[in-house]
């Protein structure tokens, strides 16, 4: 029987890890947003020559992989028990071609995203909690944000493209 270690990641989701018979270390981070990260990793005593791999899977891809490996949806059920309705805490890793790269964090409230908070910016091995609007974001930084799932998605779209999707009123006639 494989010994699976389960660790709650506050505001993120759940990390499940285990060690394979040949000494490999495998983990799955199940995010509250529904996607999962499949990771292999090493400890400090494993030496510098061990490579690390991370693969982001959406919900359908994670289910497909679990089915291919003969798994169940237990992880999904456990994660669902720990969700806070209406709150999504997720992170955005900044790439070189993202709009936010090299820019000041700025206020998303001025762009129509009220009620979203950048909780921290992680740079390398250090975190910058509650960064100010004039904090400059660089490629490789990870932005940790909290808000409704819709606002988080809107912020991520802005960080990527620099554009906000226009808000359309339900009673507005087409073309307005």
UniProtKB/TrEMBL annotation:
Residue intervals of the RCK C-terminal domain: 76-161
UniProt cross-references to Gene3D superfamilies, sorted A to Z: Regulator of K+ conductance, C-terminal domain
One Pfam family hit: TrkA_C
InterPro entries found in the cross-reference section: KhtT, KhtT-like_N, RCK_C, RCK_C_sf
PROSITE patterns in alphabetical order: RCK_C
Origin superkingdom: Bacteria
Name the record gives this protein: TrkA C-terminal domain-containing protein
UniProt source species: Antiquaquibacter soli
Organism phylogeny: Bacteria, Bacillati, Actinomycetota, Actinomycetes, Micrococcales
């Amino acid at each position: 029987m494989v010994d699976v270690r389960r660790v709650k990641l506050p505001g993120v989701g759940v990390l499940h890890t285990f060690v394979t018979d040949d000494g490999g270390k495998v983990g799955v981070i199940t995010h509250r947003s529904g996607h999962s990260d499949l990771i292999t990793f090493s400890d400090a005593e494993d030496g510098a020559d061990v490579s690390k791999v991370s693969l982001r899977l959406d919900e359908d891809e994670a289910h497909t992989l679990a089915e291919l490996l003969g798994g169940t949806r237990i992880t999904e059920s456990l994660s669902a028990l720990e969700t806070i309705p209406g709150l999504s805490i997720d992170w955005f890793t900044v790439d070189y071609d993202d709009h936010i790269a090299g820019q000041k964090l700025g206020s998303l409230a001025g762009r129509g995203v009220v009620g979203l908070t950048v909780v921290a910016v992680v740079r390398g091995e250090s975190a910058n909690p509650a960064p100010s609007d004039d904090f400059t974001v660089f490629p490789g930084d990870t932005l940790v944000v909290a808000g409704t799932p819709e606002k988080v998605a809107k912020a991520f779209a802005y960080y990527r493209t620099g554009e906000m999707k226009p808000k359309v009123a339900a009673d507005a006639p087409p073309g307005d």
